[in-house]
Specification:
globular; alpha/beta; 48% helix
């Protein structure tokens, strides 16, 4: 990294904030049928900058958009929507959305990680089993998500207005968001608060998911850890990166081949 560029990448697990630095500051974007969408605007860096408004967005699957939601999406003037889901998670009905919007598939996993498939794997299991599954999932994100995250970062290097998403917008999207915010130098408290905000933003989505659990004959209590985001999950993925690469900064530089200076130029403004 070029000397003088500040990165929030000296990773140390820190649970002292427990999400107390709330992200409920108007960054969420209201949709009728698309959930957990928010703008990174205003998130502070450790060196006196903040993320520009209306440039970087994260969310759940936007293909659920109603006609009114499509108008909201178009108003964002997105250059690209990066879809982190596997191909098998995309129903044929989404082709119309792909024709209408500039969406690009960058699947993190090859296997089907739909909510239904994950729930079926929990039949007869305990909440602790579900938590362990999520820890393993985040460690896999660190190992298997490199190509997808590299593609996402290349869009950011060009300064594109972008939205990236998975299904619920919390795990694959949440991990990618943490890496991008670390590259921007956003402070650790704000990164964790943004990550944990999905627990609030997904309340309606989670109600529907619990109904799916009942249909799939899975104890709703067992599904809880699957629907939540927890700092322990995020830390598991970041620890896996550090074990493999030594530091997050080295992972961004060597594995993602990220031009951090360019990304910061495009998306940061003074506080």
């Amino acid at each position: 990294m070029t000397e003088g560029v500040t990165l929030a990448t000296d990773f140390t697990p820190d649970h002292s904030s427990s999400g107390s630095a709330s992200t409920r500051t108007g960054r969420g974007i209201a949709f009728e049928a698309v959930h957990n969408v928010r703008d990174f605007r205003g998130l502070p860096t450790s060196d006196g900058f903040q993320v520009s408004p209306r440039k970087l967005f994260r969310g759940g699957n936007p293909a659920h958009a109603t006609q009114n939601d499509m108008a909201v999406l178009r108003a964002l003037r997105l250059n690209v929507i990066v879809d982190l889901r596997s191909t098998t998670e995309k129903p044929a009905a989404e082709q119309a959305f792909d024709q209408a919007m500039p969406r690009e598939a960058q699947p993190v996993f090859g296997a089907n990680f739909s909510m239904e498939n994950l729930m079926r794997s929990l039949r007869g299991r305990t909440p602790d089993d579900a938590s362990a599954l999520m820890i393993d999932l985040y460690e896999r994100l660190a190992r298997e998500g490199t190509a997808s995250f590299r593609a996402l970062f290349k869009h950011a290097e060009r300064g594109e207005t972008l939205l990236f998403h998975c299904t619920a917008g919390k795990d694959r999207t949440g991990f990618a968001a943490a890496l991008l915010l670390m590259a921007l130098g956003v402070d650790d408290v704000a990164i964790r608060a943004d990550y944990l905000e999905s627990n609030r933003a997904n309340l309606r989505f989670n109600e529907a998911a619990r109904a799916v659990a009942v249909r799939e004959q899975v104890d709703p209590d067992v599904v809880g850890p699957l629907l939540e985001v927890r700092e322990a999950y995020l830390d598991a993925g970041l620890h896996a990166i550090v074990r493999e690469h030594g530091t997050i900064a080295r992972f961004l530089r060597d594995a993602l081949q990220a031009d951090i200076e360019a990304i910061r130029r495009h998306y940061l403004v003074a506080l």
